[in-house]
C-alpha cells in the first residue's frame, strides 16, 4: 500500500511540474516562444469564442480587421442557445465574402458548446453542467481533430481568440489538455474588453496566467500588453 | 430636434424617471429638443407601455414616445440629434462612431462599477458628457451641452489587432 501512495504522489508531482512548465512557457513577453516563421502566402486556422452580448460584438469587431484569406478556415464557438451570436458570425462572414475575394460560406463553421453555468443557476448545480461543457470542449479541441481527416484538420486551430466571459475558461482547459499530452494546440490570445479601464474582469483575472498573449485596451490597467483601443 | 434615450437590454428605472421629469423636459424644450423617443426596456414607467408598439404623450411641450424594445437601435441613433444612454460599452461605441452627441448616465445600482470608470475616462477626454441619475444634474448637463465642443471619436484602427496577430503567428 505505501508503494501505491508513493506512485500516486509521484504521478501527481510530475503532472504538476508539467503544468507549471506549460504555464511558465506561455507567460511573459521576453521568454516567449519564437513564433514559427510563416510566409506571406501561408494560411493559419483560427478559432474564436463568442461569449454573447458585448463579448460577441467585440470579438467579431476584432475579427473584422483580419485578412480572411490568411486566417482560414475559421471556427466560431458559441454557447448553446446563443442564436444571436451565431447569426452575427454568419453576417460577418457574408460581409467579408462580398468585400474580399474569399470563397463565400465554405471556409468557416460554427461549433456549439453547452453552457458551463446558466444565469441564475445555483452554485450547487454548477459542477455537473460545467463538466458537460468541458467534455464538449475536449471533444472539439482534442478528439474531433484526431478522427476527422482531410488537409489541416489534424489540429483544432492555430490560434484561439478569447475575450470572456468565464465560460471560455473551459476551452482554455481543453487546450491545456492538448499541451499536456504534447498534441498540437492553438496559441491562446485573450483580449480584455474596451469597457475595462482600470481593473481586469473576472475572466481576465482567471485566464491571464494561462494565455500566450494578454491584451488590454487601456494603459491604466498596468497588467498585460496595451496597444490602445482595438475595437 | 430629436433625443433618443436607451437603457440597454435590462432596466434602469432611475434614468427613465430622470428623463421624464419636468426639470429635464423643460430643459430639452428650451434647447429645441422637442421630440423624445425612449427605449425603456423593462424599467418601471408611470404610463403603461405595451410589449409591442409604443405609448405616446406630450409633456412640457415635448412629444414623447415610450417603447419597451425597439427592433433596430442603429436607426434610432442615426435619426437622433442627441442620445442619452446607460454607460454600456457597446452602446457607447455604436453612438460615438456615428459622431452623435452622447450623455451617459451610469447605473448606480450595478454591483460592478466598471461602467462608471469607462464613463469617467471618456468624459475626461471630452468624447461624451456624463451625468448622475439626479434630474437637476442631468438638466444642467443638457443646458451646458454644446455638441461642437465634443471631441471626434477616432474610427476603429483594425491594423493594431491585425499586427498583433500577424506577429504572434509568425507572419511579421
UniProtKB/TrEMBL annotation, chain A:
Gene3D superfamilies: Glycogen Phosphorylase B. Its main location: endoplasmic reticulum. The keyword ATP-binding does not apply. Pfam families: Alg14. Belongs to the ALG14 family. Involved in protein N-glycosylation. Essential for the second step of the dolichol-linked oligosaccharide pathway. Anchors the catalytic subunit ALG13 to the ER. It comes from Pleurotus ostreatus. GO terms for cellular component: nuclear membrane; UDP-N-acetylglucosamine transferase complex. Heterodimer with ALG13 to form a functional enzyme. Keywords: Endoplasmic reticulum, Membrane, Transferase, Transmembrane, Transmembrane helix. The chain crosses the membrane at residues 6-24, 130-147, 159-177. The keyword ATP-binding does not apply. InterPro entries: Oligosacch_biosynth_Alg14. GO terms for biological process: dolichol-linked oligosaccharide biosynthetic process. It comes from the Eukaryota. PANTHER family: GLYCOSYL TRANSFERASE-RELATED, UDP-N-ACETYLGLUCOSAMINE TRANSFERASE SUBUNIT ALG14 HOMOLOG. This is UDP-N-acetylglucosamine transferase subunit ALG14. It is found in: Endoplasmic reticulum membrane; Nucleus membrane. The gene is ALG14. One of its GO terms (molecular function) is N-acetylglucosaminyldiphosphodolichol N-acetylglucosaminyltransferase activity.
TrEMBL record, chain B:
Residues 3-163 form the Glycosyl transferase family 28 C-terminal domain. It is found in: Endoplasmic reticulum. It holds the Pfam family Glyco_tran_28_C. It catalyses: an N-acetyl-alpha-D-glucosaminyl-diphospho-di-trans,poly-cis-dolichol + UDP-N-acetyl-alpha-D-glucosamine = an N,N'-diacetylchitobiosyl-diphospho-di-trans,poly-cis-dolichol + UDP + H(+). Keywords: Endoplasmic reticulum, Glycosyltransferase, Transferase. It comes from the Eukaryota. Its EC number is 2.4.1.141. GO terms for cellular component: endoplasmic reticulum. GO terms for molecular function: N-acetylglucosaminyldiphosphodolichol N-acetylglucosaminyltransferase activity. GO terms for biological process: dolichol-linked oligosaccharide biosynthetic process. InterPro entries: Alg13-like, Glyco_trans_28_C. Signal peptide: none annotated. Belongs to the glycosyltransferase 28 family. Involved in protein N-glycosylation. Essential for the second step of the dolichol-linked oligosaccharide pathway. Heterodimer with ALG14 to form a functional enzyme. This is UDP-N-acetylglucosamine transferase subunit ALG13. The gene is ALG13.
Amino acid at each position: 500500500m505505501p508503494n501505491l501512495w508513493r506512485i500516486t504522489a509521484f504521478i501527481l508531482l510530475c503532472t504538476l511540474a508539467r503544468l507549471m512548465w506549460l504555464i511558465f512557457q506561455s507567460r511573459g513577453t521576453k521568454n516567449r516562444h519564437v513564433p514559427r516563421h510563416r510566409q506571406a502566402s501561408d494560411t493559419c486556422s483560427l478559432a474564436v469564442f463568442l461569449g454573447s452580448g458585448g463579448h460577441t460584438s467585440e470579438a467579431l469587431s476584432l475579427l473584422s480587421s483580419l485578412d480572411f484569406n490568411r486566417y482560414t478556415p475559421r471556427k466560431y464557438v458559441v454557447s448553446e442557445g446563443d442564436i444571436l451570436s451565431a447569426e452575427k458570425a454568419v453576417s460577418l462572414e457574408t460581409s467579408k465574402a462580398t468585400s474580399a475575394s474569399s470563397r463565400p460560406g465554405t471556409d468557416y463553421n460554427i461549433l456549439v458548446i453547452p453552457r458551463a453555468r446558466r444565469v441564475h443557476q445555483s452554485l450547487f448545480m454548477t459542477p455537473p453542467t460545467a463538466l458537460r461543457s468541458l467534455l464538449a470542449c475536449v471533444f472539439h479541441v482534442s478528439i474531433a481533430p484526431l478522427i476527422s481527416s482531410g488537409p489541416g484538420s489534424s489540429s483544432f486551430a492555430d490560434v484561439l481568440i478569447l475575450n470572456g466571459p468565464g465560460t471560455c475558461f473551459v476551452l482554455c482547459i481543453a487546450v491545456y489538455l492538448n499541451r499536456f499530452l504534447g498534441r498540437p494546440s492553438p496559441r491562446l490570445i485573450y483580449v480584455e474588453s474596451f469597457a475595462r479601464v482600470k481593473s481586469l474582469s473576472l475572466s481576465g483575472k482567471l485566464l491571464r496566467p494561462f494565455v500566450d498573449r494578454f491584451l488590454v485596451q487601456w494603459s491604466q490597467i498596468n497588467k498585460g500588453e496595451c496597444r490602445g483601443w482595438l475595437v | 430636434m430629436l433625443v433618443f434615450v436607451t437603457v440597454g437590454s435590462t432596466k434602469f428605472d432611475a434614468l427613465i424617471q430622470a428623463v421624464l421629469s419636468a426639470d429635464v423636459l423643460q430643459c430639452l424644450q428650451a434647447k429645441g429638443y422637442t421630440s423624445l423617443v425612449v427605449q425603456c426596456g423593462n424599467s418601471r414607467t408611470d404610463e403603461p407601455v405595451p410589449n409591442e408598439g409604443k405609448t405616446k404623450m406630450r409633456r412640457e411641450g415635448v412629444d414623447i414616445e415610450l417603447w419597451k424594445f425597439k427592433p433596430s437601435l442603429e436607426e434610432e441613433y442615426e435619426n437622433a440629434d442627441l442620445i442619452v444612454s446607460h454607460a454600456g460599452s457597446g452602446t457607447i461605441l455604436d453612438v460615438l462612431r456615428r459622431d452623435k452627441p452622447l450623455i451617459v448616465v451610469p447605473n448606480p445600482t450595478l454591483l460592478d462599477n466598471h461602467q462608471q470608470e469607462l464613463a469617467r475616462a471618456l468624459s475626461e477626454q471630452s468624447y461624451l458628457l456624463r451625468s448622475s441619475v439626479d434630474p437637476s444634474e442631468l438638466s444642467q448637463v443638457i443646458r451646458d451641452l454644446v455638441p461642437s465642443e465634443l471631441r471626434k471619436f477616432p474610427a476603429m484602427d483594425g491594423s493594431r489587432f491585425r499586427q498583433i496577430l500577424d506577429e504572434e503567428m509568425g507572419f511579421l
